[in-house]
Design a protein that fits this description.
Order of helices and strands: HHHHHHHH
Number of strands: 0
Shape: globular
Helix content: over 70%
Largest sheet: none
Structural class: mainly alpha
Strand content: under 5%
Distance between the termini: 45 Å
Radius of gyration: 17 Å
Protein name: Golgi Transport
Mean pLDDT: 92
Length: about 140
C-alpha cells in the first residue's frame, strides 16, 4: 500500500469524522456529534498530509474565504448553533475542496457499481456539470 501507517489512521479519522457529522445532521443537528466529527475530520486531515501542509492549505490566500467560513461554522457548532454552523461549514467546505470534485467524480466513474449508477441518463447530466465536463451540444 502506498500510504504510511499514520496516513492510514488519518484516513480512518477523516472518514469517521465525516460519518459523525452526517449522523449528527440526521439526528436533528445534534451539536455534540457534529463537534466530535469536526475535531476528528481536522485531526485526520493533519495526519494524512501533515500538520505543516494542513496549516498551509487552510491559510492560502485563495482558500482564505473558505477557511474562515469553515472555522466560523466549527465555532457556531460548539456554541450549539448547529443549523447555522453546518450551513457555514458547507459553504466553507465547498470553497476549500471544490477543485477536488472533478478528480473524485472521475475516480468514482471507474468503480463497477457506482460507475454504472453515475452513467444513468438523468444522473449523468448532473454529474457532468459537477465534474466540469464540457457540454455535448455544439456551440
Amino acid at each position: 500500500m502506498w500510504l504510511s501507517d499514520t496516513q492510514k489512521v488519518g484516513v480512518g479519522l477523516t472518514a469517521f469524522g465525516c460519518a459523525l457529522i452526517g449522523l449528527g445532521v440526521i439526528l436533528f443537528f445534534d451539536a455534540g456529534l457534529i463537534a466530535i466529527g469536526n475535531i476528528l475530520f481536522l485531526a485526520g486531515m493533519s495526519m494524512i498530509i501533515g500538520v505543516q501542509k494542513t496549516l498551509y492549505f487552510f491559510t492560502r490566500r485563495d482558500k482564505l474565504r473558505g477557511s474562515i467560513a469553515l472555522f466560523a461554522g466549527f465555532c457556531l457548532v460548539l456554541i450549539k448553533w448547529s443549523i447555522v454552523g453546518i450551513l457555514l461549514e458547507s459553504f466553507g467546505f465547498l470553497n476549500l475542496f471544490g477543485d477536488f470534485f472533478p478528480v473524485a467524480i472521475n475516480f468514482l466513474r471507474t468503480l463497477p457499481l457506482i460507475g454504472r449508477f453515475l452513467s444513468m441518463p438523468g444522473i449523468r447530466q448532473v454529474v457532468d456539470r459537477i465534474g466540469g465536463y464540457p457540454s455535448q451540444y455544439p456551440v
